């Protein structure tokens, strides 16, 4: 007997959290952030209160109310430091309800029951809507995914801002401690929540405090990520789980087949984009058992459009030919396939592709791990990293901390230890005290700073370059434009998905304002409200309706559970079309959040 409960991804795009339970095993398929739902409440200046642990999230339904899965500290954060130590006798009873969390943490549950509630999490790929909320799970729960997903999770952690909701790869300990007597505050001695201080470096000024304000990344612990190879099958209790290679817009994506009395296929996010190992055929061929239950994504269930990555390449190559001056290209930095597409189109037009430091860092990390599959980005023809003007605004070497320096973006937060300044690393190298990682960091930083492309070079020969840019880098246009402040003859090409929420639409309108102000060309249509909509050279990371239907038709499952879509009902139509074509009938379960379906 096996059952499925969808805690995220029901009737919404992303945020997949799907619990599969058998007689003696429980696994979670993805544990992503419900971005859409989350953004229904939060906003730029209304952010979650990270120091209230998981309480706010659970109350709101961003996180499921489940015993036995969450990190102990986030459930019991005030137990070591009871509020009655701060509040007086009269206040405490009235204020205390919010300190109490009725959930049992992983540790409490496991101790009481003698075994954990959840045996493992299986992650299909490293997009936030599939991975982010792992931050709140106990690090004792193993996370299974492909090796590339693990690596990408690390890269994303390295370049992200940090904070308790970004601890899906590394995590640190928190504690509540008193502010030291000499702490410069109106109320020394009052408690504060912070990340635990670990290091035993000699005390410096202010270090006599119980607390430290930033956690040192180099002592953060890694979660228990267990890499699986494509085709590998493992057994957890009475469920066997097999990893199936899929194509999506990030490296390392996979689907899972769970085999028990009934076999379940969970697609993750999936597309079929034509290249040799990225066809529906290739996907189906990996599945060696009859599928009884298909948990299928339906992001693009309303779209008939079938485009391949090669179509995008051809379109870009053509488009680039007609652009006289600088070409701006906007594409997601985690999409290595898209990077290769844009690079090919750039090369065919004899241009150099100048990329974002985050992409350069990702390429470099993938190169270190898979040297034969991913070349050293420093050696790639027609690729360079953009060098921004900052701090002194003079391109002075000391303007660049490691976190700004191309191939090692954010390096300072982890591998090269706590020192962020590349010049001080150089000192260590001169003194012979640098670590290997620091030497690598230095050589990369120098490469970036010496060979990075500054705006003035692009301004002088715009026809030589394709520049990767996005809305948040629009103030680079000041440096990229000439004396008269325009970039006439340049063109902006969008290579990513359409805005799917209001916030993105607002940003796109602002982006258009920038393009207009600097006289940069772009292709657009006008919608019924009179708004300009940018045209895109893009293939989505998701299969179209005809492809989804074809997949169902090939698998002929007994049950379909549509997830990751706002139109799950369309699968009922697909099922009835298939029934009239083949005579095979399929039950469609439109999942409701938190409802358990016994299969
Ligand atoms: Zn997704």
Please describe what this structure looks like:
- This protein has 599 residues and is an alpha/beta fold.
- It has a domain at 309-534: Metallo-hydrolase/oxidoreductase (Rossmann fold, 3-Layer(aba) Sandwich).
- The chain is 28% helix and 18% strand.
- It is built from 18 helices and 27 strands.
- Strands 10-5-4-3-2-1-27 form a seven-stranded mixed beta sheet. A seven-stranded mixed beta sheet has the order 11-12-13-14-15-25-26, with helices on one face.
- The N and C termini lie close together (7 Å).
- The relative contact order is 0.12.
- Residues 14, 127, 129-130, 269, 564 line the site of zinc ion.
Helicity range: 25-40%
Shape: globular
**What is Rg?**
26 Å
Average pLDDT taken over every residue:
86
Enumerate the spans where pLDDT stays under 50 for 5 or more consecutive residues: 198-218, 406-419
N- to C-terminal separation? 7 Å
Give, in spatial order, the strands making up the sheet with the most strands. Answer: 10-5-4-3-2-1-27
Strand proportion, as a percent range, falls in 15-25%
Number of strands: 27
Compact summary:
This protein is an alpha/beta fold.
Map the helices and strands.
Layout: E1 3-8, E2 17-21, E3 26-31, H1 35-39, H2 55-60, H3 72-75, H4 91-95, H5 106-113, E4 120-122, H6 128-131, E5 143-146, H7 147-159, E6 170-171, E7 174-178, E8 191-195, E9 221-222, E10 225-228, E11 233-236, E12 239-245, E13 254-259, E14 263-266, H8 280-285, E15 293-297, H9 309-321, E16 327-330, H10 336-348, E17 352-355, H11 357-369, E18 383-387, H12 422-431, H13 436-451, E19 453-454, H14 455-460, E20 465-468, H15 477-480, E21 491-494, H16 502-517, E22 521-522, E23 524-526, E24 532-534, H17 545-555, E25 559-563, H18 570-582, E26 587-588, E27 596-598
Parallel strand pairs: 3-4, 4-5, 5-10, 14-15, 15-25, 16-20, 16-21, 17-18, 17-20, 18-19, 21-22, 25-26
Antiparallel strand pairs: 1-2, 1-27, 2-3, 6-9, 7-8, 11-12, 12-13, 13-14, 23-24
The structure holds zinc ion.
Residues 14, 127, 129-130, 269, 564 line the site of zinc ion.
């Amino acid at each position: 007997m096996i059952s499925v409960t969808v805690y995220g991804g029901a009737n919404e795009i992303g945020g997949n959290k799907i619990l599969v339970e058998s007689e003696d095993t429980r696994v979670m398929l993805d544990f992503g952030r419900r971005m859409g739902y989350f953004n229904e409440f939060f906003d730029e200046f209304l952010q979650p209160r990270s120091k209230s642990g998981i309480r706010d999230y659970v109350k709101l339904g961003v996180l499921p109310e489940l015993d036995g899965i969450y990190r102990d500290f986030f459930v019991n954060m005030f137990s070591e430091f009871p509020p009655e130590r701060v509040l007086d006798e009269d206040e405490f009873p009235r204020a205390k309800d919010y300190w109490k969390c009725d959930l049992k943490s992983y540790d409490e549950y496991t101790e009481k029951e003698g075994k954990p509630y959840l045996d493992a999490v299986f992650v299909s790929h490293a997009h936030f809507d599939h991975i982010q909320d792992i931050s709140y799970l106990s690090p004792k729960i193993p996370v299974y995914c492909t090796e590339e997903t693990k690596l990408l999770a690390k890269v994303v952690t390295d370049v992200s801002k940090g904070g308790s909701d970004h601890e899906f790869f590394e995590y640190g300990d928190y504690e509540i401690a008193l502010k030291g007597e000499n702490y410069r505050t109106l109320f020394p001695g009052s408690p504060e929540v912070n990340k635990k201080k670990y290091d035993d470096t000699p005390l410096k000024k202010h270090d006599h405090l119980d607390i430290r304000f930033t956690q040192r990344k180099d002592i953060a612990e890694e979660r228990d990520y267990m890499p699986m190879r494509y085709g590998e099958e493992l057994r957890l209790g009475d469920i066997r789980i097999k990893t199936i290679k899929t194509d999506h817009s990030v490296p390392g994506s996979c689907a899972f087949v769970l085999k028990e009395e009934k076999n379940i296929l969970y697609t993750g996010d999936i597309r079929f984009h034509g290249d040799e190992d990225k066809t529906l055929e290739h996907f189906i061929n990996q599945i060696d058992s009859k599928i009884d239950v298909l948990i299928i994504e339906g992001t693009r269930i309303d779209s008939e459009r079938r485009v391949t990555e090669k179509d995008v390449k051809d379109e870009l190559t053509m488009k680039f030919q007609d652009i006289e001056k600088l070409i701006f290209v906007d594409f997601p930095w985690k999409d290595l396939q898209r990077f290769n597409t844009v690079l090919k189109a750039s090369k065919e037009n004899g241009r150099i592709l100048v990329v974002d430091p985050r992409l350069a860092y990702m390429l470099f990390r993938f190169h270190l791990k898979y040297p034969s599959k991913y070349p050293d980005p420093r050696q790639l023809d027609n690729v360079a990293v953009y060098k921004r003007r900052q701090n002194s605004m003079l391109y002075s070497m000391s303007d660049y901390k490691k976190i700004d320096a191309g191939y090692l973006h954010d390096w300072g937060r982890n591998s090269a230890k706590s020192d962020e300044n590349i010049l001080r690393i150089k000192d260590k190298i001169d003194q012979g005290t640098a670590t290997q990682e620091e030497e690598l960091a230095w050589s990369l930083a120098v490469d970036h700073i010496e060979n990075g492309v500054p705006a003035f070079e692009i301004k002088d020969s715009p026809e030589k370059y394709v520049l990767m840019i996005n809305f948040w880098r629009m103030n680079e246009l000041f440096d990229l434009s000439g004396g008269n402040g325009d970039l006439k003859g340049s063109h902006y090409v969008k290579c990513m998905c359409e805005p799917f929420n209001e916030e993105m639409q607002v940003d796109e309108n602002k982006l258009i304002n920038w393009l207009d102000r600097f006289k940069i060309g772009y292709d657009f249509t006008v919608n019924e409200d009179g708004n300009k909509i940018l045209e895109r050279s893009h293939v989505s990371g998701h299969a179209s309706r005809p492809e989804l239907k074809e997949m169902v038709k090939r698998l002929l499952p007994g049950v379909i559970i549509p997830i990751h879509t706002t139109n799950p009902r369309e699968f009922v139509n697909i099922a009835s079309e298939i029934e009239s074509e083949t005579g095979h009938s399929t039950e469609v379960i439109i999942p409701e959040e938190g409802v358990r379906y016994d299969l």
